[in-house]
Structures are given as structure tokens and as C-alpha cells.
Amino acid sequence: MEYLFSHRNKLKDILTDKFVFLFLDYDGTLTPIAQTPDKAVISKEKKDLLGRLSNNPNCKVAIISGRSLSDIKALVGIKSIIYAGNHGLEIEGPKIKFESRLSPRFKSIIRDIYKDAVGRFSKIKGVLIENKGLTLSVHYRLVDKQDIQEFLKILAEITDPYIVRNKIKINSGKKVYEIRPPVMWDKGKIVLWLLSRQQFLLENNNILPIYIGDDTTDEDAFKALKKKGLTIFVGEKASPGARYYLKNTEEVTELLRLIFDLKHK
Ligand SMILES: [Mg+2]
Predict the structure, then answer these.
(1) Which terminal residue of the chain, N or C, has fewer Cβ atoms less than 10 Å from its own Cβ?
(2) What class is the 2-100+185-264 domain?
(3) Residues lining ligand 1 (ion), CB within 5 A?
């Protein structure tokens, strides 16, 4: 990985003549990781920049999050942005609306696991269970170190019976486990789909996709865009898929400002 801002001039060169399609993760990318999900609030400056960028005729902005669609829409609140919630299982934006066709049976599985989890995790302090309709997040950032083993044991007891029957998939992120439908749909696929749709709408291929993310689920998108655009990891830890990195979410703001200044002329 190379530090993106060591290549400022090159960056300006490649950005100048291209239509920029900006794909952003939310938690850890647009906001620092917070103790609990409800505390991750986007700054006014970032919101302002995203609003302006998404209304620029040479740019498009999509936010792709593991949060539910309604949650991510409410947090950002800008109409001209495309939102993909639940890792892309639901998408909404200007002239676009999509929900992955999951059987009602799957939603009832999520409901069952949720109920089970709420009951069984009640004895461990700090577990936060989020029912996002199509997926479920189990956060353990606030769980005491000494309880982690027990936490993992219970999680396995709850989810293993579903995993072995291929009823769910489970992914881990930053102090969170995501319980998801066993479908081949991830941030990489969603990004490629949105990109080809945009190429079709603009009738040209002169689009530069930029993906910025900080966590394991973003790796699918990094991989998908490896040869097509700029892949940027947020954080000091190495990412196997991203070509560049930025040190923190403030540098993401700086990059948004840089793109805005170039495109605003
Ligand atoms: Mg993230």
C-alpha cells in the first residue's frame, strides 16, 4: 500500500478529465469508529462536501454500508446520493431502487436468531444486537475482555446450526459479527453493478471509480476495482486489496475537498 497523499500531483492528473464515481463506506471511513453505532455521527463539513460533490455534473456519490438502508439514509440525509444498505442487499437513490429478493423465510430466520440472541446474550454485559431486517449485527466492542470467550461460545451455539445447513453466512468486522443471507452479493458486486449502470447512463467509459473503506467487507470492493480505479484503505493496518491508504477519517475529508476543488472549476 502506498500513502495516497504522496501522489498528490498524479492524483490531480488522473482526476481532472474523468467523471468521478465515489464509493464510500460509512463507519470508520466517513466517521471515526464509535463506542456504539448510534454515536457515529458525520461532521457537518463532510456532509456539506458530499452534498456538493453529489450535485456536481462530473461526479456521483454512493455510500455502501453494512447498516440498514433506512439507518444510513437517515444518518447522511442527502437526496442526491445513492445509498446501499445491508452491504448492498438494499439500494436507493435518484432513479434507483432495489431490494434483493430474499425469501420471507430468510427474514423469519433473522427474526428467530435475533430473539434467541437477545435472550442468551442478556447474561453478558455490553453485547449490542442490531436487527437490520435482512441482516443482523452483533457488536462486542463494550464486552469485557474476560467475557469474550463466553461471548464467542454462545455466538457459535446460536449460529452454527444455521451455518451448517447453509441458511446464513457470518462475517466479522471491527468488533462486530454480521449474520447475513447465504447469497453471493457483496460490496464488490454492488460497486461493479452501479459502475456499469453509470457507464450505460453516461454512454461513456471515461469514469474513474474511487472506493474508500476501512474494514474486511470493503476488501471485496477493493478486489473488484483493483484494475479499474482507485482503491483507498482508511487506517494504518495493511489491507490486502487496496492500492493506497489514508491515515484517518480526517484525511478522507481532505481528499473530498481536493476532489471538490478540482471538479468545481
Ligand atoms: Mg467501515
Answers:
(1) C
(2) alpha beta
(3) 25, 27-28, 214-215
Q: pTM of whole model > 0.85?
A: yes
Rounded distance from Cα 234 to ligand 1 centre (Å): 9
How far does residue 214's CA lie from ligand 1's centre (Å)?
5
The CA 204 to ligand 1 mean position distance, Å, reads 30
Whole-number Å distance, alpha carbon 26 to ligand 1 midpoint, is: 6
Ligand 1 mean position, distance from CA 206 (Å): 28
- DSSP-assigned letters across all residues of the chain: -EEGGGGHHHHHHHHHTSEEEEEE-SBTTTB---SSGGG----HHHHHHHHHHHTSTTEEEEEE-SS-HHHHHHHH--TTSEEEEGGGTEEEETTEEEE----HHHHHHHHHHHHHHHHHGGGSTT-EEEE-SS-EEEE-TTS-GGGHHHHHHHHHHHHHHHHHTTS-EEEEETTEEEEE-S-S--HHHHHHHHHHHHHHHHT---EEEEEEE-SGGGHHHHHHHTTTSEEEEESSS--SS-SEEESSHHHHHHHHHHHHHHHH-
For the cut 80, the answer to whether the pLDDT of residue 265 exceeds it is: no
Retrieve residue 120's grid coordinates. Answer: 442468551
Say how many Å lie between the CA of residue 173 and the centre of ligand 1.
8
Q: Where are the domains of the chain?
A: 2-100+185-264, 104-180
**Domain 104-180 of CATH type 3.30.70.1020:** yes
CA distances from 239 to 5, 176, 231 (A): 17, 18, 10
